[in-house]
Amino acid sequence: MKIKIILAWLSLALISGCAASSTRCQIEGYLGPMEIEVRSQNQRITELRVLSHEDTAEIADPAFAEFIAQVLEYQTLQIDAVAGATESCQALRRGIEQLLKRQGFTDEQCFRPLPETPVKQEEPLKTYDVVVIGGGGAGLTAAVSAAQQGASVAVLEKTGSLGGNTIRATAMYNCVDDALQRPLNIADSEQLFFEETYNGGHQKAKPELVRILTSQADEGLAFLQELGLQIDTVIDNCLGGEHARGHYSKAHNGTDFIQVLGDACAREGVDLYLNTKAEALLQDDSGAIIGVTAAHERQTIQFEARRGVILATGGFGYNVEMRMHYDQSLTGDLLCSNAPGTLGEGIVMAEAVGASLMNMEYIELYPMADIYDGGLHNSIPNAINHGILVNTQGDRFIREDAGRDELAEAIRSQEHGFVYSIADDDFSTLQEDRDFLEGLVLMGQVVKADSLDELARLLDLDPVLLNTAIADYNRSVEAQNDPRFHRKTLINKIDHPPFYATAKTVTVHHTLGGVEINERTQVLNSQKQPIPHLFAAGEVTGGIHGANRLGGNSFPDCIVFGRIAGTEAARN
Ligand SMILES: Cc1cc2nc3c(=O)[nH]c(=O)nc-3n(C[C@H](O)[C@H](O)[C@H](O)COP(=O)(O)OP(=O)(O)OC[C@H]3O[C@@H](n4cnc5c(N)ncnc54)[C@H](O)[C@@H]3O)c2cc1C
Q1: Atom 41, ligand 1: residue with shortest CA distance
Q2: Which CATH number fits domain 125-169+207-217+252-362+512-571: 2.30.30.40, 3.40.50.300, 2.60.220.30, 3.50.50.60?
Q3: Would the pLDDT of 18 be above 50?
Q4: What is the DSSP track for 329-368?
Q5: Do the Cβ atoms of 525 and 286 come closer than 8 Å?
Q6: Belongs to which family (predicted)?
Q7: Which of 255, 313, 347 to mutate to test the pocket of ligand 1 (most atoms within 8 A of CB)?
Q8: How far apart are CA 329 and CA 290, in angstroms?
Q9: C-alpha 134 – ligand 1 centre gap (Å)
């Protein structure tokens, strides 16, 4: 196993013979209380420990390790928060400062200037067959695929951990799967999948890429299963989709996708460089891409790529300036579901070497986000298929199975910019869904009531409007015809108390545009010719989803095009 994770030491030895101080405190972390311990001796910080926290472990743990290592090394809190875990690191910094001050540190001692000269010397040049930029779903898939072709591979990841947006995802994976769909009477085909994707994207995607996505998604899932991913037998319909073809892993989120891909990279001997931010693509005189310049701990490293560089840096949803450049309405006031590292750097690097960009103006707003942080995870399970949406008066305002873009626009135009998702007790037969929902009720994120009048009272809705809207909807379910909004998925009436409701709003979710590629994932220039030795896969690319994305299509996008990119680059 040759995986190389660049990590610093987490603690310094205590200097014997001097008086030492040690204090602990509980502070408010990003997602809950956090307990930390700080030791110092002679105004030097000797040990820092996070004893407990409630932030997302996969993201926060490596970030804390990196942050602590740097504080100890440079003896200052003037360390940048780790990208991807900014809020968690800022909370940790506040706690350390508080404890240091209790131990007699002054402001100047807490915030000493960083040393001018770098402490560590890095090898200036590293050579590989293939260099992948970005350690999310697309990048890791490309890395495994290239290594399976016998190439030596490096993955550069700017944050302290793998995963990007992929690890945050609900991780629905669309593909046609007769074995699971047929017993559930779900009629589906590659052609239907193609049409729903291409037409749902308002025919703005490149049809040849949509054809590849929809015809190879099943092979992509089989590839993941071969690597060890366990797939659940549930088949689900995504928000904004008409056919249930969404698969989940056992964890029902992106963590096990990243775990399986990371393990496969390790097995295949891929070298992984964390905290290593690609800054520019290197070109030779002919215009071919020959490598990447990257920054690691204030050092510059050149990565030479003998066969190809693969861009897999994800989208730019978190970059307010960049998204407003393409859509003025997407101001910083909007919530965003993305990882903070989703800044579009790969697109900027590609543009600098002449890449053509496409579909940049299409930026997806997810219409059913949690109102307090723009996340996706605290919804009533199955609410879109089994429930309805009402505005803040209590009336329906749209067919709930509309496309994401239509739903988002309708929600944005409602008074106060948010709506309620409402369901009754028939929302799910699964005990785990029921337990999950009760948890949300306990946390105050979902309101539960024994009658519609009570629900209206709790949410300050007009009870007459709410009762009328639901009675109308129930008649539509009976008649299998919704004359008011023409909703097609009329599965069950809302008539079994208790009733549940939660507030939902829009969040900046996915950037549909990016670098233009061809069927071999080669990045094209403005003359639509491949830029030699430059490939791209995943959310950094445009032309796969068009103007509107079918939920559950990004995971196959990453895997299908990641595999092609890795294979093509390795064979280059
Ligand atoms: C909350 C949420 C839920 C979602 N749910 C689903 C779902 O259920 N199904 C679905 O299909 N899609 C879903 N999506 C969309 C999907 O997760 C993403 O489109 C997809 O994971 C993107 O993968 P990627 O590999 O292209 O980018 P990412 O996973 O974002 O990885 C890109 C990586 O590149 C790194 N990077 C960026 N710039 C640099 C640089 N200069 N140098 C080095 N590294 C760099 C980043 O730090 C990051 O780790 C969801 C998205 C979100 C945010």
Answers
A1: 278
A2: 3.50.50.60
A3: no
A4: T--TTSEE-S-TT---HHHHHHHHTTB-EESTT-EEEEEE
A5: no
A6: Belongs to the FAD-dependent oxidoreductase 2 family. FRD/SDH subfamily.
A7: 313
A8: 38
A9: 9
List, by residue number, the catalytic residues. Answer: 404
Read off the amino acid at residue 457. Answer: R
pLDDT tens digits for range 449-483: 999 999 999 999 999 999 999 999 999 999 999 99
Summarised one tens digit per residue, pLDDT across range 362-418 is: 999 999 999 988 988 888 988 888 899 999 999 999 999 998 899 999 999 998 999
* Residue with CA closest to ligand 1 atom 51: 169
172 in contact with ligand 1, CB cutoff 6 A: yes
Q: Which atom of ligand 1 is nearest to the CA of 554?
A: 11
Q: What's the pLDDT tens digit per position in 299-336?
A: 899 999 999 999 999 999 999 999 999 999 999 999 99
Q: Which fold has domain 367-507?
A: Flavocytochrome C3; Chain A, domain 1 (3.90.700)
Cβ–ligand 1 distance for 307 under 6 Å, the answer no
Q: Are 99 and 40 in contact (CB under 8 A)?
A: no
Cα 498 to averaged position of ligand 1 atoms, centre (Å): 37
CA distances from 232 to 209, 218, 328 (A): 28, 15, 41
The per-residue pLDDT for 480 is 97
